[in-house]
Amino acid sequence: MSLFKRRPLPLVDADAALLDARKLLEKRMAPAARRHFLRSSLTLGGLSLLSGCSISSNEDVEAVLNRISRFNDRAQAWLFDPNRLAPTYSSAEITHPFPFNAYYGEDEVRVVPEAGYRLEVSGLVADRHRWTLDELRAMPQQEQITRHICVEGWSAIGRWGGVPFGDFLRRVGADLSAKYVGFQCADDYFTSIDMATALHPQTQLTLRFDGEPLPPKYGFPMKLRMPTKLGYKNPKHIVAMFVTNTYPGGYWEDQGYNWFGGS
Ligand SMILES: Nc1nc2c(c(=O)[nH]1)N[C@H]1C(S)=C(S)[C@@H](COP(=O)(O)O)O[C@H]1N2
Ligand SMILES: [Mo]
Question: Where are the domains of the chain?
């Protein structure tokens, strides 16, 4: 389903390796960096210079790309402004119908029953009790009309409502100096985010979509909505979350998507 899925590089031939390196690099970059990169040219020497190591095989190219992607994570984290808000839109600009996307088709949407549902919260938090949806609905709610951007080449404007995620983290006594918040979903999806983004005012533990309870296809019982990050960083059907200092990775991230994934 993904354009960016890792595939084995063809055997050696510097030109072929470079072409693949260029494509992989491009796809792993933040949009702003990509615009600049498209205007530049890449040589094996250039890639070596960029990475500070000599490249003689396809495995080296992969290793270097991974290092560049980690570098890209750090650069994006550094550039991330915790106070800068993503654009918001009017209700007239909402996209109807809003697109569905997952690593499977719409006929396989996970339907999680509300009865018996409890959100598990673990790791570096003081309060580990398991949350019902009603408990979350009782917290102060926030709404946003923002743009969701998917790396597969589409974007759409939607309206989401729920609990500001920073409020939730403070409420459970999370260690706000920890590095990551990880998410496990009811399908096999998982992802993780940096603490600065977790605390961003537009990062939302989402319970509602377009004025209704979040429908199954958009992530019932809850998703994490972040207009500052690309679509694949926004987990649907969350069943568990944890605060940690150990890098948790993610479903697409482990296959080569850039981890920070800023938009
Ligand atoms: N649990 C889960 N969350 C997920 C995904 C998924 O496959 N499973 N796909 C991600 C991707 S790539 C996108 S673009 C958005 C799509 O969300 P939507 O169906 O609300 O448009 O969900 C993200 N969150
Ligand atoms: Mo996506």
Answer: 14-79, 91-255
Q: Does domain 91-255 have CATH number 3.90.420.10?
A: yes
Cα distances from 102 to residues 18, 25, 147, 152, 202, in angstroms, run 31, 23, 17, 11, 23
**Residue 53 reports pLDDT greater than 70:** yes
Cβ of residue 233 lying under 6 Å from some atom of ligand 1? no
Residue nearest to atom 7 of ligand 1 (CA): 102
Q: Which of 236, 251, 253, 263 to mutate to test ligand 1, by most ligand atoms within 8 A of the CB atom? A: 236
Provide mean pLDDT across the span 216-236. Answer: 98
Q: What b/e sequence results for 47-57 when a residue is b if at least 16 CB atoms lie within 10 Å of its CB, and e otherwise?
A: beeebeeebee
Q: What is the pTM of this model?
A: 0.85
Tokens of 137: 């609905």
Ligand 1 nearest atom to the CA of residue 238, by list position: 1
pLDDT, tens only, 140-171: 999 999 999 999 999 999 999 999 999 999 99
